[in-house]
Design a protein that fits this description.
Distance between the termini: 46 Å
Structural class: alpha+beta
Number of domains: 2
Oligomer: single chain
Number of strands: 5
Number of helices: 3
Amino acid sequence: MSKKRKVNIFLLVFGVVNLAWGVMTILSPTACWHGYCWDQSAYNIPLGIGISLLGLVMLLLSCRKGQRDYKKVFICPHCETALPLAEARDGMCPRCGTPMEPLEGFYERHPELKKQA
């Protein structure tokens, strides 16, 4: 049984953007934006390499193993502490040590814990 590796979309997108921006900085020493142009030929190589390296680091971090999954939230039925499962060690509540349950459908399973407004 193989686990599907999660990809951090934010780091993936900005890694590709920074990598492309770094390569373009190396290849084009002049830049223009809304009619304002500047010459960066004195430092385009180190700047481009730095931006490209930042992009590569972001790409590597986007695919790293062991990323936290913040979409799966769990709740403790005893103290009602809600946490992502990644922050609850071994599926146990860090406050009271009770096994945690998925938040989705929790109050349907435990109607006695529903607070009356």
